[in-house]
Design brief:
Blueprint lengths: L6 E5 L4 H12 L3 E6 L2 H15 L4 E4 L5 H11 L7 E4 L5 E2 L7 H26 L6 E6 L12 H21 L4 E7 L7 H4 L1 E2 L16 H14 L3 E3 L2 H12 L1 H12 L2
Helix pairs in contact: 1-2, 1-7, 3-4, 4-5, 8-9
């Protein structure tokens, strides 16, 4: 896919992978449409894109987990000339055992990681269909969404559900020249571990993994994947190993996961 003059809608676009991807795509001439809760951070990213690449991006402060905010998004989309790529990047992590979990924490995780993806797609799809050019719907998932990980049941299952949703509808929308791409980033230096929750709903605060990649490096991988229209995208070996071993050698994968997580 040629990126110049493509309108790319990114949720969670005010920080982390979303911000880095917006800037990476703007570097190649794309026009970002950024959605996030924090208006001031969106304005900052918008200004930095304009100053660095002379690209006028769009911003829309919105809590994608709230139905009323999603309804307002419909009017905003009418001000956008077109949409070529959608990147469902916004998400929340949830760490903790099932026995210590609460229904409220699980539902919050699914509301952000799954239902917002479904409902935003429902809202955006008519706009995507307006032009006959190649379009894409992308999901920032996680290797944890490929196989159940200990003490990540809510995070793993919500991301897996979103992945299967996109894979399912891809067969319905391919005739509209819309393809899908699912990103499985490994550890990345973002605020995810400080903005997430525990399985019982308390604020999560965990140290970043030592081998975590910079968001800018991850964004470059994702940008190339969009250009090549790749369906599955990995940023490290772990994601690839899980992807293949879950089918070819699930018992071996179980042993590797339990060894790594000491379960």
């Amino acid at each position: 896919m040629e990126l110049k003059n493509k309108y790319v809608l990114i949720t969670g676009g005010s920080s982390g992978i979303g911000e880095a991807l917006a800037k990476e795509l703007a570097k190649y001439g794309s026009i970002p449409i950024l959605i996030a809760r924090r208006k001031e951070e969106l304005k900052r990213v918008q200004k930095e894109i304009r100053d660095s690449y002379e690209i006028n991006s769009y911003i829309f402060p919105c809590d994608i987990a709230l139905k009323e905010d999603r309804e307002k998004l419909k009017d905003f989309l009418n001000t956008i000339p077109r949409i070529d790529v959608v990147v469902h990047n916004a998400g929340i992590t949830n760490h903790g055992s099932f026995e210590n979990s609460t229904e409220e924490a699980l539902r919050k995780t699914f509301e952000i990681n799954f239902f917002s993806v479904v409902e935003l797609t429902r809202i955006i799809l008519p706009k995507l269909k307006e032009n006959a050019d190649k379009k894409m719907i992308c999901l920032v998932s996680t290797p944890s969404g490929l196989y159940g990980i200990p003490e990540r049941f809510a995070y793993s299952s919500s991301k897996a559900a979103a992945q299967l949703f996109l894979e399912s509808i891809s067969h319905e929308i391919y005739q509209n020249n819309i393809s899908i791409s699912i990103f499985f980033p490994g550890y990345t230096k973002t605020n995810l571990r400080r903005s997430g929750i525990t399985s019982d709903g308390k604020p999560l605060s965990e140290e970043q993994e030592k081998n975590a990649k910079d968001p800018e490096d991850v964004a470059k991988i994702f940008r190339k994947a969009i250009q090549k229209e790749k369906k599955y995208v990995f940023t490290n070996l772990t994601g690839r190993v899980i992807f293949y071993l879950r089918v070819l050698a699930p018992n071996l994968l179980d042993k590797l996961i339990r060894k790594k997580t000491k379960h």
